[in-house]
Write a structure and sequence with these properties.
Elements (H helix, E strand, L loop, with lengths): L15 E3 L6 E3 L8 E3 L6 E4 L4 H19 L5 E5 L2 E5 L1 H10 L3 H29 L8 H11 L5 H15 L4 E4 L1 H18 L3 H13 L1
Antiparallel strand pairs: 1-2, 3-4, 5-6, 5-7
Helix pairs in contact: 1-3, 1-6, 2-3, 3-4, 3-6
Length: about 210
């Protein structure tokens, strides 16, 4: 069975990779699809050639954008306390927190559930989609840097964990029904993780470099 070689790479220059664990510097040759390069000193993975990398990044990134639209359009929670019913959406929750004087908390909800995921998913699609045809759209390098800087701030799992802890207290005071937006947010967390797991950073930068030279 023949393996395809990895992504295109700029010829005529030396490619090296530093181990993020022990800082050992290695030459970075191409590896076959489905394989990985490891550090000769500590055995840590340096980079991988992941199958269908661009297609997976674009597919899961697009799915994340659709799920974001659902998460911010439909109700997140529905409460029924002694006959009094109320709905809560993510956007409404952020605005209500700011109106009640919790500006920092409201801003955090907006950043973690809207701004950071939008930068990550939208940026990944913007960069990877044209790369499927060997092209780079204007500002692709700057967008890639922004995406990588924003990645640590997309803490959807922390937000969902906080919601689950709050629900344990709410169910004692009212009947709680999880809305469509809650499940969409959970799926969004999975899709974003899958999108970034689909493509190696070294491959992304190598493809960008080749595309910019064309």
């Amino acid at each position: 069975m023949r393996h395809r070689e990895t992504w295109p790479r700029t010829a005529g220059r030396r490619h090296q990779a530093a181990c993020h664990l022990c800082d050992a510097l290695h030459d970075a040759p191409l590896v076959e699809e489905g394989r990985e390069a490891r550090c000769r000193v500590c055995g840590e993975v340096l980079y991988e050639n992941r199958p269908a990398s661009l297609e997976r990044a674009v597919a899961f990134g697009t799915a994340s954008l659709v799920l974001m639209l659902v998460a911010h359009t439909f109700p997140f929670l529905e409460l029924d306390a002694q006959g009094r019913e109320a709905e809560m959406s993510l956007t409404g929750a952020a605005l209500r927190l700011m109106q009640e004087g919790s500006d920092l908390l409201g801003l955090a909800v907006g950043v973690f559930t809207l701004l950071a995921p939008l930068i990550l998913a939208g940026g990944l699609v913007y960069v990877c989609l044209p790369l499927m045809w060997g092209k780079a759209w204007p500002g692709a390098v700057q967008v890639t840097r922004l995406v990588q800087e924003a990645q640590p701030w997309a803490m959807l799992e922390v937000f969902i964990l906080g919601v689950l802890v709050s629900l344990l207290k709410l169910v004692k005071l009212a009947e709680v029904e999880l809305g469509i937006a809650f499940w969409a947010l959970g799926l969004l967390m999975i899709c974003l993780t899958a999108a970034f797991a689909g493509i190696d950073r070294r491959e992304l930068w190598d493809r960008l470099e080749v595309a910019r030279e064309q």
